[in-house]
Specification:
The chain is α/β, with parallel strands linked by helices. 41% of the residues lie in helices and 19% in strands. The chain has 15 helices and 13 strands. A six-stranded mixed sheet has the order 6-7-5-8-9-10, sandwiched between helices. The longest helix has 36 residues.
Length: 445
């Protein structure tokens, strides 16, 4: 197992003395806060952001998911980023010494690095340097099981690699621009770029085939009135555990981040006897690389086309508000922010008893523990109430006893409140979906 040394960066901002400084922010969080401060006073307040310490803790969880052992960590405070090395050469030499004494094999930055910054840093620390995006891509590559997932990860990796080819070694170096440096043909760098562009085109064609097949499957599903409910949420919120508890599907549920990459669909019977398709999807994360969102668009279309989005949160996480805000950012990028929504706060079994007892469900929020199977009945009831597709109504029916097929369908697909046998007919009061009522409308009482 590789030993990783973690590096976080906090950018300080000078504020008026009257304003108390909050938790230090990461580079991305600070930029978002500044942008929010520049808006007119009547606009919406900025969303919660991770502090530098919380962000570094998340990087540690990501590194462990990638199979690394944490050798040490370092959080630097700066007024602004250094354009050449992000954190300045002096601090970089200090980090190089700390990483060497800890026996680290690689250095992980909780920040996206430009290709030139990555090369400059490697030149000082003499170790492999990986930024946050590359780490997430590596985890995705480890966990992709289906051909579709592997294609989507490969596309994201190729698009990440393309601008980083220069300087990866002497064999890839470009020819100089002066006298005596012009070569007879294209450089190795140009050859590699051509190969990568060719491979990107090939992978995109295969992903397009996947999207076409998914569209055909979705069209067949939509021809039958079976709504889709998509589970979305921050990575490691417990979506797969909840999916298993509701469907008995047995998909991989792991405390490691991004354990689920390949989407799974299973039928679930609601209390009203309506059937829905439940979809388990890839987890979201702060600053999810744009290349990943683009590459996984074929998978995330399940979210875009869902009748209901169930947003699963880790109710015991100290960064709950920040994680929820980041999920909203990704849903907005997918243009799914206005879809019908239900919020599920998972892992309530990890809360203190007093805190757990104070929780109250409402029309928009349900509290559950997928592991302990607490609150699952209330969740199914709330999904039933929230779904607008194939609405449920209460009706009276008088069906001849000779209509065995119709009676069997009523038994299987409705909730029966009363049943009486009168003059060779069965009088029923049932709660039934509209699709079932249409089939028995001739016997409506």
């Amino acid at each position: 197992m590789e030993r990783a040394f973690l590096v976080g960066v906090e950018y300080r901002h000078r504020e008026p003395a009257s304003k108390a400084a909050k938790s230090p922010l990461t580079a991305g969080a600070a930029a978002a806060r500044d942008a929010a401060a520049a808006r007119p006073a009547n606009t919406k307040p900025s969303t919660p952001e991770f502090s530098a310490e919380e962000s570094l803790a998340e990087l540690k969880a990501l590194a462990e998911s990638a199979g690394a052992v944490i050798a040490g960590e370092f959080l630097q405070h700066r007024d602004r980023p250094d354009p050449a090395t992000l954190i300045g050469k002096g601090k970089l030499e200090e980090i190089a010494g700390a990483a060497a004494s800890a026996g680290a094999d690689l250095i992980l930055f909780d920040h996206d690095l430009t290709p030139s910054q990555q090369r400059n840093i490697e030149g000082v620390v003499h170790r492999r340097v990986i930024d946050r995006t590359q780490l997430i891509l590596d985890i995705f590559a480890r966990h992709a099981r289906t051909r579709e997932g592997q294609l989507q990860v490969e596309l994201a990796q190729l698009e990440y690699m393309l601008p980083r080819l220069a300087g990866r070694g002497v064999e890839m170096s470009q020819l100089g621009g002066g006298i005596g440096t012009r070569g007879p043909g294209e450089t190795q760098l140009e050859t590699d770029r051509r190969k990568i562009y060719r491979r990107i085109r090939h992978v995109k064609q295969q992903i397009e085939n996947v999207r076409r097949i998914r569209a055909q499957q979705r069209q067949r599903r939509e021809s039958v009135p079976v709504p889709t409910v998509a589970l979305v949420g921050y990575t490691n919120a417990g979506k797969s555990t909840l999916f298993n508890a509701l469907t008995q599907a047995g998909v991989v549920a792991s405390p490691r981040m991004f354990a689920t990459l390949d989407p799974t669909l299973r039928h679930v019977m609601l209390p009203s006897k309506r059937k829905v398709l439940l979809s388990d999807t890839v987890g979201f994360i702060r600053s999810l690389p744009h290349t990943l969102v683009s590459a996984f668009r074929a998978t995330l279309e399940e979210v875009q086309r869902a009748s209901l989005i169930v947003h699963v949160s880790d109710g015991a996480s100290p960064t709950l508000a920040e994680q929820d805000a980041q999920v909203e950012v990704v849903l907005k990028e997918l243009e799914a922010q206005h879809k019908p929504r239900l919020h599920v706060r998972n892992k309530v079994d990890l809360l203190a008893a007093k805190q757990r007892d104070s929780l109250r469900d409402d029309q928009a929020t349900v509290h559950v523990s997928a592991v302990k199977e607490i609150g699952l009945g209330a969740l199914l009831d709330r999904i039933d109430q929230t779904l607008q597709q194939d609405p449920v109504s209460r009706v009276r029916l008088r069906i001849p006893q000779s209509e065995g097929k119709a009676l069997a369908m009523i038994e299987a697909r409705t909730r029966v409140y009363s049943r009486a046998y009168v003059d060779g007919a069965v009088e029923l009061e049932v709660e039934a979906p509209e699709s079932v009522v249409r089939k028995v409308k001739q016997w409506l009482g």
